[in-house]
Automatic annotation (TrEMBL):
The lineage of its organism: Bacteria, Pseudomonadati, Pseudomonadota, Gammaproteobacteria, Cellvibrionales. Residues 19-68 form the FHA domain. Coiled coil: none annotated. It comes from the Bacteria. It comes from Marinibactrum halimedae. This is Phosphopeptide-binding protein.
Amino acid sequence: MAILRSTDSSSFIYLKPAHIFGRDPNTADQLLFDTACSRLHCVIRWQGNCWVLTDESRNGCYINGTPTKRGQTVRLKLGDIFAPSKSSQPQWQLEDDSEPTPVIITTCGSRLIKLSSFNLLPNEHTPICQLTQKNHQWYFEQGHDSVEISEGFIFDMAGQHWRFYPNYVVQETEVFEDNSTPMLIFDVSQNQEHIGLSMNIDGRNIEFGYKAHHQFLLEMAKHKLEFNSEKDAGWMSNDLLMHNLGIDINYLNIQIYRIRDAIKKYSPYWAQHLIERRRGEVRLSGCEIKIHQ
């Protein structure tokens, strides 16, 4: 995520994919107070593989001391210094020109954490919550709750307030719908202490080996086979799942994170869609199941 830092090093700006500078508090991401600046002064945006500035002002902007004209678009390079007007202070230097990425930032702006599709926060060893992406929708999962969130969502973590920014940019690697039906194949030892898992997607067999979190998947798979009626649709309560496995809600959330993360490198779509959650419940979705004992 790109950063503009003031030339006196007193402050910095994390750039959104389209970051508006201006004097209008209703539209500006970065509010300007210089009367030489316009209500919509300029926009810095990610375009293709670089950051560009488009001048929308009456009086122009300045890049490395060179003025721009209204309607002009200028490519920004690492180290460039941007001033909204000739007399503006502070001026801003492009310190980081990396592409936009989903992030959470403390409300005071002191810390930033970049996000992937599945995030156990603040870390896997002391998890408090999860942030997960399904298609273009993000979800905040904590305890038994799973809620849809959007830009600006604020939550508490480790004694600090954090704000969420999805920073959507259309990527060539966008996850498209997968119309195949995955088959989960469990290889269960007689005493059920060792559980192997493979996944067949469109004739491609993926081996996941023997992992502790396969017990969690097996429990849901058994429930789906037994209760996959129209009424139940395979939903299983978190409480029942935790009781059967002898775990708490934090460990349950860790298991879900590990499963999604393991599947992601083989099928980003099914990493997002195989496990569905709603308040107090979880289920396996869109898959077929075989259990070999």
